[in-house]
Amino acid sequence: MYISRPSRVEYVDVTRPASPFEDTDETFSSQSTIVQLTENFSRLNPDLGEFVSTIYSKAFKPQKVQARRIANALNSIPPPRNSQAPDEYFNILSFAQRFLLALSCIMLKQPQRDLSPPLLTYAQEHSIRSSSSPITDATPHPLSLALIRLHTTSKRHRDNVGYELHVKAEAAVTAALVTVIQECLPGEDIFVATPHRIQRQAVKAALSARHFETLSHLLDKLTLDGEEKIKSTVTVDTIERLQGVSCTPILIFTVGSEAAFVICLFSLPQSHISDLHFLLERRRLNVAISRAKSMCVLISSNEVLRPAVDALTNEETAKGHTFIRAFADRAWSSNISVDIDAL
Known about the structure:
This is DNA2/NAM7 helicase-like C-terminal domain-containing protein. This protein is of the alpha/beta class. The protein contains eleven helices and ten strands.
């Protein structure tokens, strides 16, 4: 493995063909999509709010500033430790530590060398001056958008990495991020938003396997669906189901459908580029990303971010790609390559 820099909302469902990877046994994820009718995104951090508003005709003014305690807590992450015999899980955990620590340094206006800056930066002074909060040194730099570009390798499978193997690597990176966040901020809830059920199962398996418990005993305190909530909750589910329970086609986001941290899994191996149309549904992307109260970490891949031109001939897919590229252009980012043979 190598690491490099590089209120309330209402929705209504619309019938569409199902993807082969969807939850065909679940009402809203097999035969429905998500259409936004009304929005109130003033609750978002200013940079995330500015990004989400790019697909709406009317801009809005964010009414909050990212809490400094988030930056301070992430800044307490210990530097990765050396290991005499590092395995792939150790390497992934070290990446997660460096990634989140670098994000905290950016928020606290400290130097860092692990993340590449966004192509487009948020006009921080304009946003803060337009609100009731004065600019001070204590005001953290708004950083709600972060990107991990995942690349999976395999000598056994060469260039034909299967989807299930790729998802296993994606889940391992996700579990490492969850572990480090819980170490620093055990009281903050986390959403892991997955387009497909197979991703949901892989992430839950990775969390249950406790590959990263040498960092934190707090994994024992995580609560998955169906378990008693002890202190904070990690919710791993498909994007449609993260909307909440409803017995009608009208789905309503409530306070419980938000989390401080949202990790969105939107990566593909080259062998499954045909799933790009389902993955790049803009409304699904918007729903997942806009659930973050503090930070959204998008795990994607070059197959999704920079697909072949002929993969974007569908108008809706092209809109989704424009949206996810807009996220990438605004996000601090890093690359990770995972050897799936070592997992």
